[in-house]
Amino acid sequence: MARHPDAQELFRSVFNAEPDGEWFAPGRVNLIGEHLDYNGGKVLPFALGLHVRVALRKRDDNGVRLVSTLGRQVWESDLEEIRSGKISGWVAYVAGVAWALGSDFGFDAAVDSNVPLGAGLSSSAALSCASAFALTDPAVTGKPRPDLETLVEACIRAENDVVGAATGGMDQSASIWCEEDHALLIDFGDASRRQIPLPLAEAGLEVLIIDTRAHHSLADGQYETRRRGSERAARLLGHEFLAQATADEVRNLPDELQPLARHVVSEEARVDDVVELCDAGDFEKIGPLLTQSHYSLRDDYRVSCAELDVAVEAALGGGALGARMTGGGFGGSAIALCRAGERGKIEAAVDAAYREHGFEAPEYYLGLPARGAHRVS
């Protein structure tokens, strides 16, 4: 794992000045509820200890300078260029938030992160959210901070309209709203949220995140294909969202749409079951539901890949209580629910399976529900 981020150190070395402060926003992992956000269903992410930190200082002019430990090259611009929306690369996640918030001051900012890129753990949303907290801090602006809903919406707008990446808001909501030892239940059907108790460490459990380091080009266009298929199924059944359908209705769909709808309806039910178990404190019983979710994503939604399937089966063989792919699919990460102290055995099982299949060795991260975005100093 990368060293602990120190954005302030980078800021001082590059800009030869003290930042006004440092702000933190975490990555996230979705415990269950995959491909349900755009289907009007429920998701259950929690924030990770992996995070982005942004050190920022307000300027007296319209200039903007950004630097990251990833490259250490300084990007220079101004508010006028930012407002044009003609920005690309990682800086768009910072400058795009300034645009979405309507910021009226220039700033210098330094960014550091230990959220792995490409692992499906929302490094980009963490960067946007940390930037939003920095740019709206009353100590920086001299004004009250907007409500958190406004910050989430600004981060979504930045990714959709400036970066050009379609996002439904789960990642930004998790990075900002999550609380320690809780998962965040988000219902995209009615836009409601609820904190769900998930004190894994207290229960002697942990989530092992397995970054497969696999990214398949065959996924190009596959996300949109599944989204369009789901939307068509919902229209045929007369629903606004496919998550509103029942299992009986799914059987009336054309054959080619039934697997997609079957996943959405069954995954929605699994989220409800996991929430009920969390509320009751029966955390070990979550395991089999995670595994069922993976098989549904593999067989019905068809968004898994060999690396994910091997990781899940090896983790289960190594003693995991349950395991599944997480994220959009076709690579990225899998998660395994395990008892504390058994991570080593599960990692060894996955490593052996990857060597047997000739895959690149995966990387591992500990997933315990952490606090959302906040000021560090």
UniProtKB/TrEMBL annotation:
GO molecular function: ATP binding; galactokinase activity; metal ion binding
Domain Galactokinase N-terminal, chain residue ranges per copy: 9-58
Domain GHMP kinase C-terminal, first and last residues per copy: 275-355
Domain GHMP kinase N-terminal: residue ranges: 93-177
Pfam families: GalKase_gal_bdg, GHMP_kinases_C, GHMP_kinases_N
BP term (GO), one: galactose metabolic process
PROSITE patterns xref list: GALACTOKINASE (PS00106), GHMP_KINASES_ATP (PS00627)
Key words of the record: ATP-binding, Carbohydrate metabolism, Galactose metabolism, Kinase, Magnesium, Metal-binding, Nucleotide-binding, Transferase
Known EC number: 2.7.1.6
GO cellular component: cytosol
Origin superkingdom: Bacteria
InterPro entries: Galactokinase (IPR000705), Galactokinase_CS (IPR019741), GalKase_N (IPR019539), GHMP_kinase_C_dom (IPR013750), GHMP_kinase_C_sf (IPR036554), GHMP_kinase_N_dom (IPR006204), GHMP_knse_ATP-bd_CS (IPR006203), Mevalonate/galactokinase (IPR006206)
Family named by the database record: Belongs to the GHMP kinase family. GalK subfamily.
Record-linked NCBIfam families: gal_kin (TIGR00131)
The protein's name: Galactokinase
